[in-house]
Amino acid sequence: MKKIFAVFIICLCFLTVFALESISKENNTIIKNKLFSISIPNQLNGSYEIKKEKDKISIFHTASKKAGFGGFAFGIKAYKNPSDHATLPGSRKIGELVDKKGVIYDIVLKHPTDVQYDYTKSPEAPEAFKSLYNLGEEVNIQGVKGAKYFKNQGMKGEDLYKSVLEKHIKAINEKWDSSKLEKENMSYMYNVIAQKDKIGYAYYDVNVDGIDELLIGEIAQGDWKGVIYDIYTMVNRQPKHVISGGARNRYYVCDDSFLCNEYSSGAMESGVRVYNLVENSTELFPQINFKYDGYENPNNPWFLTYTNEEWQNVSESAYNERKKVFEKYERFDFIPLSNAIIPSNNKKKVP
User: Fold this and answer.
1) Each residue of 110-141: pLDDT tens digit?
2) Degrees (nearest 5) of the Cα angle 300, 302, 304?
């Protein structure tokens, strides 16, 4: 009797799990293309339209689309080449998909960059539009036809820069001199500091493309806290060196997504160059430069330029007013290289 009862309980548990799985599936609509599928809660049924392509699924808010305002809420697309999506506005990598042949695709989330609902009725988006828009951030994605999707794959610094950290640790352990460091595209400052517990690293998505950069700098306080001596980024899924700094040529992350280069040529000349780091590239794109140049104009030494060619001589107040926009530096608590945790499965090489 006890055996029969035990079998009954096991069967009941099995049926309960099966029922829960069935309910879970019934509560979502599965939309597939040739590479992946996404799940949309059935509570949103009737509020959206679907556009499917072999490598892309786009979701539109029906009422906004019918009203002539586009209605685009979000899209998920697979890209074989990272350069194809690197500079697309409103796009951000959210993971990678590997098909059954081993081909890697970046899975990219795209949101609208302009208003896609009827703002003439209300400045607030309709609730159904908001729900669809927000779904893009947490949508369930699965590979199809033998493909596998890996959320956050190829995005997190700890998975990407093993070889870079190993190289820096080796340089300090072997006490490379300044000439060797510079030959290896590394800052000479590591020879000056020469201690692993005084040099640290941080991961930060500087260009807001969903993929971390690696920042290596000095563990310091005050104005030197957060100073960066080497910057690395990912180009076509490989780590690449962007630029090195030094004592009179320091880099900081400023205002969340800019790189500020503080430089000095002496008491009479100094400045700050502000850049964006171009996605999937080592290129630094100039935004604005500030220069204090007492050699050029001792009486009014404040200059700025947007073109990097023609300098405008401005008043001190105008100079300071514009410059303060870029003075919010990220003061990283760098992890000492001596405490570096390096995953053993990372085999990507640094040029």
Assistant:
1) 999 999 999 999 999 999 999 999 999 999 99
2) 140
Most distant pair of Cα atoms in the chain: their distance:
102
Query: Averaged over 51-72, what is the pLDDT?
Result: 97
For residue 318, being part of any structural domain is answered with yes
**Is 34 domain-assigned?**
yes
H helix intervals, 184-340: 189-193, 316-323
Instruction: Give me the pLDDT at residue 25, please.
Output: 55
Contact 311, 297 (CB under 8 A): no
Q: Could you tell me the pTM of the whole model?
A: 0.84
Q: Which residues form the domain of 41?
A: 24-151
Phi, psi of 316 (to 5 degrees): -60, -40
Q: Is residue 146 left, alpha or beta, with left meaning phi > 0 and alpha meaning psi from -120 to 50? A: left
- The verdict on 307 and 186 lying in the same domain is yes
Q: Name the residue with tokens 């786009």.
A: 58
**Strand, coil or helix: 87:** coil
135, 74 in Cβ contact below 8 A?
yes
* Dist CA 323 CA 115 (whole Å): 31
Distance CA 237, CA 245 (A): 24
Reported as a pLDDT band with limits 50, 70 and 90, residue 176 is very high
Q: What is the distance in angstroms between the CA of the first residue and the CA of the last residue of the chain?
A: 71
pLDDT averaged over the chain?
Answer: 89
- Looking at the structure, tell me whether residues 109 and 243 fall in a common domain: no
Q: Which residue has the tokens 């609902």?
A: 117
Res 232: pLDDT: 98
Report the pLDDT value the prediction gives residue 347, as an integer from 0 to 100: 45
φ, ψ (nearest 5 deg) of residue 231 = -125, 135
CA 173 to chain centre: 31
CB 243 within 8 A of CB 284: yes
Q: Which of 131, 151, 171 is the last residue of a domain?
A: 151
Per residue in 225-241, pLDDT (tens digit) is 999 999 999 999 999 99
